[in-house]
Amino acid sequence: MKTYKQNETPEFEMIRAAAPEDEGARQYYFIEQARILWKQQFDGLVDSGEAAARYEGSLLSELQAEGKYGTFHIATFGCQMNARDSEKLCGILEQIGLKGVESENADLVLYNTCTVRDNANQKVYGRLGYLQTLKKKRPGMMISLCGCMMQEPSVIEKIQKSYSYVDLIFGTHNIFKLAELLCCRMMSENRMVVDIWKDTDKIVEELPVDRKYSFKSGVNIMFGCNNFCSYCIVPYVRGRERSRKPEDIVSEIKKLVADGVVEVMLLGQNVNSYGKNLEKPMTFAELLREINKIEGLERIRFMTSHPKDLSDDLIKAMRDCEKVCNHLHLPLQSGSSRILKLMNRHYDKEGYLALVDKLRAAIPDIALTTDIIVGFPGETEEDFEETMDVVRRVRYDSAFTFIYSKRTGTPAAAMEQVPEDVVKERFDRLLKEVQKISSEVCGRDLHTTQKVLVETLDDHKEGYVTGRLSNNTVVHFPGDESLIGKIVDVWLEESKGFYYMGKQVERQES
């Protein structure tokens, strides 16, 4: 579906015709055009006296002092890929001249949506009802939707029919076009602009990004998914796998390090299959080794790893690259080989356990986390007990446990569903077992000194900070804001099951 052009006005066509052909330069051109349009709108509000009522308290003076021309609010639903996309959207809006605010009472509200589970869709519909109330009180407010949920044709039809006050809709493949689409919408005489791409092979580099953290950052290494697990909508909404060039990834990370980043999270739906579609193929293990060479970078994380593609060479790279964190997220989904086959996961229980044995032989103290689905169609008590057996044998540091959510358009949606009460009872049993094991496993480093990356001030205890070990376990210890973003030595005094209490240790000069 692409309905963008039908909304173009002659004025916008003239602006678009003057845009550069290079996509990166083109979008910076539209950022400047959008900046002009927002400034004109803002100046009109100021001249008419309406701005004082719209921007309560000191916000108007703050905007004028910062040279900003309005406000925006981004709400992100879903995974770390969406969170990274939102940082890019935020960067574009900041460049246009808008100021990010916590409240949805803003000039532009953008929902970056997820559609992995149906309740995520319902949450967005509920929030849209609230936004309609806000928009009636705030003429000129713009509402925009993007992300995975927007890739479903039935969703677009519902929004056009029942939420006609939404101004702009775009998907996962063209988030780089936000400024261009805003220009189109602002010149389209209050018509809804919809621009959805079914798929793309395009990757646009060098666009603005506003990072949530100054000291760590997500880095997309690939987009899309080729796996088609029978329960998952992602390949239909994120498209086929496409990898970024290694030189672009390395260049981005070097710039991040120069800007103060010490830890990166390499992101992809299945990072283990990185590089297969490149002109000069490169494996993920080879990419890790290249990134490990970057001076100034301290830590490398990545997700998500599909067990079927986790090679022996990747395990060696994880072992040998000192900057790769001592943690691997390895989704299980089910411990039953029969269910795994129905899920189209391309490994069985025995293969998964053999992989865990290889990992622990190479990296004995590696922390393993996982995803598990309870109540997949056709799951019997015997199948569920197979999952419990894997949990007990692997002894995960933590597990994200989910009740199966039926997603229209996936093969699993047409299978026989497990009764809700049975699923709930199994889920509770699994959660109890996972938490019991996790509380035992996570204390392995008690009474040792470990390196901790300090991330935030402690939300619950004044005078304390919160950080993470290489294995991703959380640590709380006395400290102040000056430690945020630094890697410090911490003595782990007490294990609280899922986190440690500690104290900073001064490093000895050698």
TrEMBL record:
GO molecular function: tRNA-2-methylthio-N(6)-dimethylallyladenosine(37) synthase activity
Reactions listed under catalytic activity: N(6)-dimethylallyladenosine(37) in tRNA + (sulfur carrier)-SH + AH2 + 2 S-adenosyl-L-methionine = 2-methylsulfanyl-N(6)-dimethylallyladenosine(37) in tRNA + (sulfur carrier)-H + 5'-deoxyadenosine + L-methionine + A + S-adenosyl-L-homocysteine + 2 H(+)
Domain MTTase N-terminal: 70-187
E.C. no: 2.8.4.3
Details of cofactor binding: Binds 2 [4Fe-4S] clusters. One cluster is coordinated with 3 cysteines and an exchangeable S-adenosyl-L-methionine.
Origin species: Ventrimonas faecis
Function description: Catalyzes the methylthiolation of N6-(dimethylallyl)adenosine (i(6)A), leading to the formation of 2-methylthio-N6-(dimethylallyl)adenosine (ms(2)i(6)A) at position 37 in tRNAs that read codons beginning with uridine.
Protein's name according to its UniProt entry: tRNA-2-methylthio-N(6)-dimethylallyladenosine synthase
Entry binding sites for [4Fe-4S] cluster 2: C225, C229, C232
Cofactor(s) the record lists: [4Fe-4S] cluster
InterPro entries: Elp3/MiaA/NifB-like_rSAM, Methylthiotransferase, Methylthiotransferase_CS, Methylthiotransferase_N, Methylthiotransferase_N_sf, MiaB_methiolase, rSAM, rSAM_horseshoe
HAMAP family: tRNA_metthiotr_MiaB
Subcellular location: Cytoplasm
Endpoints of the signal sequence: none
